[in-house]
Design goal:
This protein has about 230 residues and is mainly β. It has a domain of about 140 residues. The chain contains no helices and 15 strands. The two termini are about 30 Å apart.
Length: about 230
Amino acid sequence: MQMIDGVLTNAASFGYSQSSLTGETTYAANAMVWSNLKQYSINISQSQVFFNWDKEVPIMILNPDDGEYYKFGSYKDRGTIMMVQSVSAGYMRMFSTHIVTAGISNVYLGQKDNFWKGFVGGVAATGMGVFLEGGNVVTTAAFTAFGTKPFNFKKLNRLTVSPMLAYSMTPATYDFESNKVTWSEHGTWIVGSNFDFNLTQRFKANIGGTLIGNTMPNMPLSWALTIGSRFQF
């Protein structure tokens, strides 16, 4: 990769993840080390699946007279997925600067047969502490929300359109050396969509586009365009 000063450097990344037998809990660890040995990072996380108690389970009673089972009643058990919650902690060293992060995110999944089926959205909060050379410490927190949902059309049943909207902001930054809080009401927004077209049962062509902007006045927009394909094995 190329650094901001134009120097080329190498970096190696490592990752490990393990899930429980039921798949409800997943642990992950990721690390990256640069060839100059003055930059490295490590991040650990845990994800937990939470369920809705919306599955109706019948209570069956055996009638000894005729040997038949009859429904006596029912109770609610775990059914559809409500959300996936992830907590993470990380450390990064960038030359003489040390960065510590901690975050939590909730991702909600729409699974019931209504308008929200297929919806994926969530919120996330991340805290960061930056330890600068000389002893000064700067802390900040970032908040992010996003949502996306696929749509299919009867006349174009091979086409799937998935619009996406995201917003992120860092409302406050605290500088320990100056004992000053800097407030900001501005944030970054992202609007985009993916267009998937089924050419065959297992092959999809994909076109995606995103527009990125900021609520700060006179901040220029940026955009991205992706063209690719997907295979399903």
